[in-house]
Design brief:
By secondary structure, the protein is α/β, with parallel strands linked by helices. Helices cover about 25% and strands about 25% of the residues.
Length: about 625
């Protein structure tokens, strides 16, 4: 390398001289010209236009490799020599010091990571702690300003399960906002598949929705020349999602960004269990592969292209304590995935669990890999410095810190984003503000020790009320999946009026209700499937139940032996008796791994879940109270 470097430096002396800057607003005050910490011994002095020799060398800027820096020093010193600003001896000293400095042997780039944005473009929508995309953009821009060599990347669920300001417009506002920010890549998450691969492709490539009047309403600078939705200017990545018809990935497996000749590959994917948490229509014709196996199979391909720096963007995660940058007791699927990763992977940016953590987890070679997650809803970003050895082009160090976006006066809103948010907020103002009922107090989705929430009680009651009449299902009990409850229902002072926007934020999926017949044994199987590791369940998901139904479970018992009692209107559930049961269409199709619900007979479709909730509120004009959380009992 030394010989090649010297040849490159000498050859560069015969390249036409570069043009010098005419003025330097802040001349470098150093006594001698230095290269990093190496003193050349050449006196630093002004050489015209207020610039010093050290200014013109400008070793502080990033260099893609050491030969590039040496060639630069050779060109500058040759021009200085020609103009008689330095002697031949001084030029030799400058080149020797440049070689000794090793400047250009490493390159640091900045990655800015986030995950689970979920269309939270408007500040305070869904929760007062959500900063909104305008403040999010400000924080991203501030991090970018620290290093012009950067990439902004997302680990999935950028869209889907979004508040009304984005969701009403098919999440086009979120894509347009991310285009304005200028992000680079988004790995698909499970919610990117909520409306199927055709809609996902529309998000990437553009065009208006074929049947939705709220599509294509963006500002002139955000839409295509024909006035239609422009699609994402960044790349969606889906390494482990294949189209069963073509055998090809439904979207590119990875994207590559070049930093002064040093290429970094970003492999993007979602969790392999996506089909268990997305409606069957959303994943029809798609196959989801193992995450670690997918990455490991790509490594030889990337290396064959000369790419040694590999970052994985994965919509799967874990659970840890110790604060936003802690990693105490890390658990969850991400641990097993990283434990099986090829050592060539340098960094994992994760998501899905909506938790913030900053971890080191061993790969399959037993060596620690940095694994990060930035929580949810734009509340946080991960600031990552990736240092690359420019000779091997591989990552030699990773430093990461989760930083808060900031709300209120803490972080200003980016001026280039506020018009977009205001535009969609105004368009959605009328439907959002429509009053649909009253509550007596804020109703929380937070679960008690048994896994029951006050809001879960209320939603299940509303679904039962919508389907218990003759001709509408004759339902006897309703169950609601906790993942479908996306926010608390706030109390709007002074009278507790509930707006459509409030309710939509709670239930944004638009699932329809389905009433079916199950026997008592199937009901027991349904409840036994709530617990992680039981009947294919990946994580504990406590179903919320309607009034009149109650059950108890033993937390310490084995799978399929946890449910100790079930009653309906105080009468024990008979394993052989038939019961009419209401769930949403997502659960009815086996979502969240509740496969037993696909066995239900005599199905009858019903209202959209949000319509049922509105009807329940209107049927109780005195106000709906928070649920009592007394239907599920947890035993040791």
């Amino acid at each position: 390398m030394r010989a090649k470097t010297l040849i490159a430096a000498i050859a560069a002396a015969f390249v036409p001289a570069m043009a010098f800057a005419t003025t330097c607003t802040t001349p470098d005050p150093v006594a001698n010209v230095t290269f990093g910490t190496v003193d050349s011994g050449v006196a630093n002095r002004a050489v015209g236009g207020g610039c010093t020799i050290d200014d013109l060398i400008d070793d502080e800027q990033a260099w893609g490799n050491q030969p590039a820096f040496l060639a630069h020093v050779s060109r500058v010193s040759f021009e200085l020599f020609k103009q008689r600003h330095i002697t031949a001896r001084e030029r030799v000293a400058l080149i020797a010091a440049a070689k000794a400095s090793d400047i250009g042997s490493t390159l640091t780039i900045k990655l800015i990571g986030f995950n689970d944005f979920h269309g939270t473009i408007k500040a305070g929508e869904g929760s007062s702690s959500n900063p909104g995309v305008a403040r999010f953009a400000t924080r991203i821009d501030a991090l970018r300003a620290q290093n012009p060599l950067n990439a902004v990347v997302s680990a999935g669920d950028m869209i889907g399960a979004s508040p009304l300001t984005s969701a009403l417009f098919k999440d086009e506002p979120t894509i347009e906002a991310m285009n304005r920010i200028g992000i680079d890549f988004n790995a698909v998450g499970n919610h990117e598949f909520d409306e199927g691969k055709t809609e996902l492709h529309r998000m990437q490539h553009g065009g208006n929705h074929p049947s939705d009047a709220f599509s294509g309403l963006g500002l002139p600078q955000d839409v295509r020349g024909d006035g239609q939705f422009a699609g994402a200017a960044f790349g969606f990545l889906a390494a482990n999602v294949h189209d069963t018809t073509t055998g090809q990935t439904v979207l590119p497996a990875y994207g590559v960004k070049d930093f002064l000749g040093n290429k970094v590959a970003f492999v993007g994917m979602t969790l392999k269990g996506t089909p268990t948490i997305v409606s069957p229509a959303g994943v029809a014709g798609l196959q989801f592969g193992d995450e670690a196996d997918t990455v490991n199979a790509l490594v030889p391909q990337l290396k064959a292209k000369g790419i040694e720096s590999i970052v994985v963007l994965i919509h799967e995660g874990g659970f840890a304590s110790g604060g936003d940058n802690g990693c105490d007791g890390i658990s969850g699927p991400i641990v097993d995935i990283v434990n099986r990763l090829d050592p060539a992977v340098d960094l994992v940016i994760s998501g899905h669990t909506h938790r913030a953590y900053n971890c080191l987890i061993n790969n399959k070679a037993g060596k620690p890999v940095r694994v990060t997650s930035a929580g949810q809803y734009a509340r946080m970003l991960t600031d990552i410095d990736l240092t690359i050895d420019t000779k091997t082009r591989d990552v030699i160090s990773v430093a990461a810190t989760n930083v808060a976006t900031g709300t209120g006066n803490i972080t200003a809103q980016a001026p280039y984003m506020t018009d977009l948010v205001a535009h969609y907020d105004a368009l959605s103002a009328v439907p959002k503000a429509r009053v649909i009922g009253t509550i007596t107090g804020a109703i929380s989705r937070s679960q008690n020790a048994a896994g029951e929430s006050a809001l879960g009680d209320v939603i299940a009651d509303a679904q039962l009320d919508a389907t218990d009449d003759i001709g509408f299902g004759e339902a006897m009990v309703a169950f609601m999946n906790p993942g479908g409850i996306r926010a608390d229902l706030p109390f709007n002072a002074p009278d507790g009026k509930v707006t459509f926007g409030d309710a939509f934020t709670v239930q944004p999926f638009g699932n329809s209700l389905v009433t079916m017949t199950l026997n008592g044994a199937q009901l027991k199987t349904l409840l036994e499937t709530q617990f992680a590791g039981c009947n294919g369940q990946s994580s504990t998901r406590m179903l919320q139940v309607s009034a009149g139904f109650a059950y108890s479970y033993s937390a310490g018992a084995a799978c399929n032996a946890r449910i100790t009692a079930m009653t309906l209107d105080g009468v024990p559930v008979d394993p052989s008796a038939a019961y009419r049961v209401t769930v949403n269409s997502f659960l009815a199709d086996g979502g969240d791994a509740f496969a037993v619900l696909t066995e239900g007979s005599n199905r009858l479709g019903g209202a959209v879940d949000l319509d049922a909730f509105e009807a329940y509120l209107q049927a109780n004009p005195a106000g709906v109270a928070p649920g009592a959380q007394d239907r599920i009992t947890r035993l040791p």
